[in-house]
Amino acid sequence: MFSKDIGIDLGTASILVYVAGKGIVLQEPSVVALHKDTGKLLKVGTEASEMLGKTPGNIVAIRPLREGVISDYDMTEKMLKEFIRKVTSFRLFKPRIIICVPSGITEVEERAVIDAGIQAGARRVYLIEEPVAAAIGAGIDIAKPDGHMIVDIGGGTSDIAVISLSGIVESTSIKIAGDQFDEAIVKYIRRKHNVLIGDRTAEELKMKIGCVFPRPEETSMEIRGRCLMTGLPRVFTVTSSEMIEAFEEPATRILEAIHGVLERTPPELVADIATNGIVMTGGGSLLWGFDKLIESHTGIETHVADDAISCVALGTGKSLEWVNEMQDGTINLSRRKQMN
Ligand SMILES: Nc1ncnc2c1ncn2[C@@H]1O[C@H](COP(=O)(O)OP(=O)(O)OP(=O)(O)O)[C@@H](O)[C@H]1O
Ligand SMILES: [Mg+2]
User: Fold this and answer.
1) pLDDT < 50 regions, the chain
2) For the chain, what are the domain ranges?
3) Which of 161, 197, 219, 257 could form a disulfide with 131, with the two C-beta atoms 3.0–4.6 Å apart?
4) Closest atom of ligand 1 relative to the 179 alpha carbon
5) What is the CATH number of domain 141-176+251-309?
6) pTM to 2 decimals?
7) Three-state SS for 167?
8) pLDDT, tens digit, for every residue of 243-281?
9) Residues, CB-to-ion distance under 5 Å, ligand 2
10) Any idea what DSSP says for residue 323?
């Protein structure tokens, strides 16, 4: 083989690229910066993300996947092209690419992802569902007749799935994840303190003092924002228990989604999940206390996978081994067996 096959975790917050034989070679934010008038692409990834919220009038920095799977098709394609170019030194042979997508994806969205991959230079594009990739990446042997529950909380979507015999038995994908927790902080601070803060400050608060379950020791952080009464900058302190209040709504939505999936899962598999526990992946699962919150609501032991942020990319990378058995295009890995 002259070209290396590539696995891509096309996330709403970050993109990870896995190259066969090398592992994860790139991890950058899913952001592009472009010239407003000409539409010309200026920067992608880390460099573009540093511009978010700080661009002058003629430059815009956007997250093309933010609102769902692909909210801005052209930009997603350009961004993919740029990342693929970065990791392939040899351009004579086009690589085969497996792209990971949320489990709730529609056929139209599948088509858009495949087209973006082809336009970006792939010879063939295959899709894998995010929770399946996450489970493989978390080291779960998904081929056995044994039920496992994966809760992948990313930036834009949370995917909850029960997997057995390499397939998804029951799942849901909701658009409540890391971004909505950031938004919940912005709203809360505005309501409670009458101060407007930016998305980046909100994300920093979430990572440093955020929690969805009481921390053993209360922590706090000093932040800056603009007072809505005076219009002037204001410095004030936010505590971790305020974070629990701020996150109540999005956290409850995720708990309800987990509950719903458990309710629809056949009893034998629920019994397996009770034995195996729930595994959490994705950056959003690092929000302090999420495992404890799920455990306290379901009574099922829950833990965050090692390397939670890279699990999906690692699993997508591992599934490259099966690429020869997969059919082109719209066939998801988990549906591979049924198609043969
Ligand atoms: N330590 C942390 N604590 C809380 N949240 C975190 C932490 N680290 C990352 N996150 C959040 O994780 C989210 C990104 O996770 P991830 O990279 O898994 O998303 P993604 O795969 O790009 O998105 P999706 O799967 O929805 O398409 C962001 O909202 C980020 O703020
Ligand atoms: Mg993800």
Assistant:
1) 1-2, 329-340
2) 6-133+312-339, 141-176+251-309, 178-246
3) 161
4) 29
5) 3.30.420.40
6) 0.91
7) strand
8) 999 999 999 999 999 999 999 999 999 999 999 999 999
9) 11, 154, 312
10) G
